[in-house]
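Dear colleagues,

As part of the handover before I leave the project, I'm documenting each prediction I ran so the next person doesn't have to rerun anything. This entry is a single chain, and its sequence is reproduced below.
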Amino acid sequence: MSARRGENACLYERIRLTDVIVKAYSRDTMPSGAGAYSVCVPNRAEVDVPSESAVAKMPPEMRGILNRLEGHECAHLLWTMCKDMAAHEKQQQYLMTAAGKVMPDHFHKFFNIVEDPRIERILCDWKQGMESGFGEMIEQFWQAGDMAYVKTQDMEECLQLYLLLAGRCRYHHVDVMRADVLAARQDLMQYVSEKVVDRIDSLLHDVVMTGRPEDVDSASVLRNTCHVMDCVAEMLKLCGLDAVDQSQQNQQSQGQDSQQNQQSQSQDSQQNQQSQSQDSQPEPTAEEQADADSLRAAPPENKGQVNWDPDQRMGQGGELLKNIAEELGKAVAQLQQEADRNGTVSPVVQEQWGGSFGGECKPHKPDPDYWSPKSLKDYHPQGEQLFKSRLVGKVLRQTSFNTGSIRKWGKAYSASVMGRQIPSDAMRKFRVQQDHGNDVDIVLDASGSMRDKSCPEKSRMLVALPVAWSIHKTLLAVPHVTCRVTTYSFDETHVLLKQHERVPFSTAASRYTALGGTPTHLGITESMQSLLSRPGRNKLMLVVTDGEARNDDWAVRAVRTAQARGIHVIMVFIGGVSKTTRSVYDGVCDCVDVPDMAGFENAMYRQLAQVI
């Protein structure tokens, strides 16, 4: 999941202001053959769209089409979807009732065909300047044959085609489609009278002009969409596609709710009737009539798509979208090749992963159920002093110096053994001849499973955090070494301890909160970016986790990418994990299983000593 930017960002923000959480999923392919796809259910609203990084590399005209299609799906979430489940269920019940004897999926198809120009009209009223973009998009669909006249002998398809062409041609002012609309109208008049077609035109205009940009609350959306369904039901009845009296059936099933919805439409209907005269279409010219006659006389071709079905997401046909999908594939492949050359994660993959990197942890009061006053005192594990002494001794053996005396270095070594901080002036005079520095990151799992609610004293975080803090503190005393401690949970990573930051353990505990999921890929990726920006030659990443990642494939890809950039990645499984989880990383990176948490400290120092 990713946060969308660009010209549709204001639409996502407006959806958020309606208290609906919308998930924007970035893909490296066209979602199910469409330019964009939405789920209009309030408790799982989402928009499925191509990757912004890939779209940015596509030709401008294709970029514009994808932006319009994404905006169209956002408009559905604003003006078609009821924002609470109670209203959403009423909306679905009303659709089933309005459908009558028509199959619900067929009725929903007609509803979508007339609903699309309606929400696009509202969107253009709300955001000035989008009208020309939608007009250009519809014209390109027409030129590709995806939204053009095609001969049909089926009454239902004939009505669908006419509503599709008339709705888009008239209300987006795509004049090049006028001959196609005229041909479809004359086909429809083979089944019904001209008077009936005029009434269908009136109903279509009524539908498209229903609603205002501010009608985003559930009550307004329910009222407007129910009115659209009533208009669609009347269209089907006029064409003999539904023999059931819709108004009587709606009253029986909906009762007072239906009556209130019909009454609330009175004012809008009056406004629509007043505006209808302003939207009257000019008489066709002789040239347009000749073009329409030519279209109707031509033999049937595999041109166009009669059933331009949003439910099918244009999975069939759609030549323009097929071309866009091909260009999208090329852009994704190019970005992946660039990432492979640089040894990084493709921006397309990063969009799919989503999340935010490197934020600072907000301090909070440590939970007394987990952190006792005694445990919040500075932690001194058994291996810390010996490890520090070994490191300092190694550095001293490799050090040459031009000033100072051996006594000063002896004092520095003695201070390290006794656990005191090495004097800063002595630190500055270390000159390592062979070791070119080390950069270390300890990446801690901060998911909810790291804490044990039933038995707090057995929580894994009570072991992982003190050891990580201790290593960070120890490495502060070692020259040419940088160390950070980070955490990951939900869709975020945070820096728990920065480079060269000296804080008491109580401060570290106040920054660590074990809640949320396990996005291991985010923790690894953020750490990789930091390690690569630091000067040391040797890079070590210790990933401490207690279970399987939210997405194993993403985690493995992140590990492979980090190792390809020269980072030594070690997965440390605290508390033990299943063979299935362990097998995911076998052969990919070094793994250390620590089923006994008492041995976690030694295991961490042992891995650290192998590299530094």
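Residues 355-378+436-611 form a domain with the Rossmann fold fold (CATH 3.40.50.410). The chain has three domains: 1-81+318-346, 83-311, 355-378+436-611.

All the best with the project,
I.
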